[in-house]
Design brief:
- The protein has 145 residues and is an all-alpha fold.
- The protein has 2 domains: 74 residues; 64 residues, Orthogonal Bundle (434 Repressor (Amino-terminal Domain)).
- Helix 3 packs across helix 4.
Length: 145
């Protein structure tokens, strides 16, 4: 025959489990709902990012169409391209800075890709592409200093 203490202990454990289960069940349901909401939001963000990239691509195409209509040429800039042009011309960063009328630090930062030149400086950088070694040397000789 079981002892009254063991029966009482078993009953208390059973009631405690029942109460705990009753209290945790709403939390489990809420947690599951939150997880599904988060997953839905992630899907929506992904869809919006895709839509944004599509719009950005079409916006670039539209802007290039407008530049063709207005006659303005969009100048491109590349840090690697600037380095390649400087080396092709056999110039130092200091010499290129004098030709472009900017600081040497600007040239270094442009070449490292840390910063980009202003739009007003792009035509001067583009003129480097058309320049030969002799013309670059001539332009350096013309500059004061």
């Amino acid at each position: 025959m079981p002892n009254i203490a063991t029966v009482l202990k078993a009953e208390i454990s059973r009631v405690a489990r029942k109460d705990t289960r009753a209290e945790t069940q709403p939390l489990k349901k809420a947690s599951a709902q939150y997880r599904s909401d988060i997953a839905a939001l992630k899907r929506r963000v992904l869809a919006l990012e895709k839509q944004l990239s599509r719009l950005a691509r079409s916006g670039k195409a539209a802007s290039s169409d407008t530049t063709e209509k207005t006659g303005k040429i969009g100048l491109r800039y590349s840090a690697k391209g600037l380095v390649a042009q400087r080396k092709r011309l056999g110039l130092t960063a200091t010499a290129v800075a004098k030709i472009l009328n900017v600081s040497v630090q600007s040239i270094y930062k442009w070449e490292e890709g840390k910063t980009r030149p202003r739009a007003s400086q792009l035509p001067a950088i583009a003129s480097l592409r058309k320049m030969g070694k002799q013309e670059a040397a001539k332009r350096l000789a013309e500059l004061p200093g």
